[in-house]
Amino acid sequence: MSFAVFSSCSPHSFVRYSQQLVCLKRTLYATNTRWKQAVDTKDKPQPATPEQPESHIKASDFEVPDVKPNVLPPLNRPLGVRERPTTLIKSRTQKMKDLMDKDIRMAQRRHLIKEASKGYFHDMNMTRKHGGKTWIAPSVLIREDKALYLPNIVGKSLDNGTIKNTTTLCYGRITVLAMLGTQISEIHAKSFVGPTHARFSSNSLYQYIQINLQENILKSFLVSLFANKLRTTVAPEMQPNYLVSSQNMEYVRDPLGMTNSKVGYVYLIDENLKIRWGGSADARPEETQALESCTGVLLKRLEKTKPPKSQPVQQTTMEKVKKA
């Protein structure tokens, strides 16, 4: 019967059927062998391991995960740009040279790639971690030979709307400069500058400049629209040095350490337009004290080379009578 079935099949079908039988036979044999090995291993008695007393257990026997505390790093580089700032406007020829410069184009390309990897709410999400603070301000001044320059920033003064720039304002004086953009950044700046401004505001070689930076066109328009309301929140004596700027700071944010647009930044500028100290976000007590001491050091050095202008003393009535 079986021979008749096989005889009716084609040679190709017969070979295929034979291969299936061989595979089935191998599978059954392998399964039976593994089953016997498992039974023999289970029946074989295992050697008893002596239990160690608790006194032999050491702390090194346990694997402790290496948990690193989330500590903010100190500022490890000078802030600013390498080129000395200037008030001259670049010509078309200079702009074309910058576009053709390979190093400048590669730096811009790296910056764009870095910014493209960030989300829209990146700065807002970063404020959840240390309040947006990314580094600790130094306790001493940055060395003059290592310090970099503050780029030229142009804006309109709050008192009468005249156009001013930081290069002209900061040259020859010790300047504490605050970069503002939001209401929380104003609180950050006050936490840094409060004691320093109260101590040195009477010194003619000292000045405090605030820059309200609004790179967004719509926000810049709203700030200029409500300028009168802004004047009510700023003291009249500080309005000449309060600049409202819409300058594009895209390619100088990283050199200045301004990695978060939601927090405030404070810089100490010497008479040569170099950034000698910097702080970010909410100030710690030691950072506030460091800004005050560093400002005092720069003022003392500048007073030795350039004494402050002495104000004329008003003559008393008795002196006028004697001269008469």
Automatic annotation (TrEMBL):
UniProt cross-references to Pfam families, sorted A to Z: ATP-synt_10 (PF05176)
Annotated GO CC locations: mitochondrial inner membrane
Superkingdom field: Eukaryota
InterPro entries in UniProt: ATP10
Annotated segments matching region Disordered: 37-62, 302-324
GO biological process: mitochondrial proton-transporting ATP synthase complex assembly
Name this protein carries in UniProt: ATP10 protein-domain-containing protein
Organism: Crucibulum laeve
Source lineage: Eukaryota, Fungi, Dikarya, Basidiomycota, Agaricomycotina
